[in-house]
Amino acid sequence: MRFTDTLPTPSAEALAHSEQLAQRIRAAIERNAGSISFHDFMQMALYEPGLGYYVAGLRKIGQAGDFITAPEISPLFSQCLANQCAQVLTELGGGDMLELGAGSGIMAADMLAHLENIGCLPDHYLILDLSPELRDRQRQTLQQHVPHLLARVVWLDRLPATPLRGVIVGNEVLDAMPVELFTVTNGVPFPVDVTIADQGFAFTPHPNPSPSRGEGLREKLPSAVQKLLLPSPLEGEGLGVRGSSYTSEFNPALPAWMRSMADTLAAGVLLLIDYGYEHADYYRPERTAGTLLCHYQHRVHANPLIYPGLQDITASVDFTAVANAGLDAGLELAGYTTQAMFLANSGLEAVFMQALEANPAKQYHLAQQVRTLSLPAEMGERFKVMAFSKGFTPTLDGFRLASRQHYL
Question: Which Pfam families match (predicted)?
Fold first, then answer.
């Protein structure tokens, strides 16, 4: 994945699609007195019915798309994840699995195949995905790889009404949730809005921001952000950043989303895998431009306002905020570590050796996959794994060694 300011020009058809969405966004801006929050812009760009990036019929994942995920890189990732799920299902005496946003379906296929091999299939494998195009790909992938297990797979339009016993898995789900952008001016945070500019969009400057608006945003920020970034009247200069050069983001939907996960889980474990940082690193003063990034045809850039509907827009995950939201929702924090350590704890060496024995000619490719998944310079440390439990007390295998909970 290359970071660049030069992007390929979309096709005429793609540009027409993007313009349709841009017209809807402009209409929303005009209805809202000339600007909308970046959160609302990102929501429309990614999820506007029929046109948003994640719900329109565009190829997103894989070599023909805009980015590639760990399950696409190697089945070893999914097999390790399946080992952790198997421990939970075994301890519970069976149960269901729910995957949030199943991408191309390859993780579901590889996990089901591995769970079958080790004699620990779930009763049902539920998939919640908003994209009709991805649902079709998921069905095709499962039909190709595990056709005899397709009857266990159920696609959902919403979270199940009856809480499940088992495992909920979300791989790169949190980073796709719309975020609120803010900038800090003289110790006070102000929201960053989006307005119309020429034929496109621009961030709205705040030359004379309203203090009341800044204080309203201050109340929404997690308390730890306030302490790290913003001077407190009780603390004089405080611990925060001063001036107008600090911009970052936060996920306002996290508390409600984690409550919905807690309500969905009767007993078992929620596993979340994503890229991000602990709070102190996420909001360190040197990170003055936040973490917002865009992916378009395997290029990475920092302009979320172009090509609405054609590019992925993501923000790194604040794992401290995720942990706090989970605890507030009544879940137990059951584990937190790097992807590299989670995979090592979950049998990466064993599944690698099994794959190598089955196909010795693929030794180089398998070794490359392991390096990509686990090296610090690749995905090994940038990606983290966090687990929450409910009605489940055994220590999870994937977090036996190298816990990072003390960093949260």
Answer: Methyltransf_28 (PF02636)
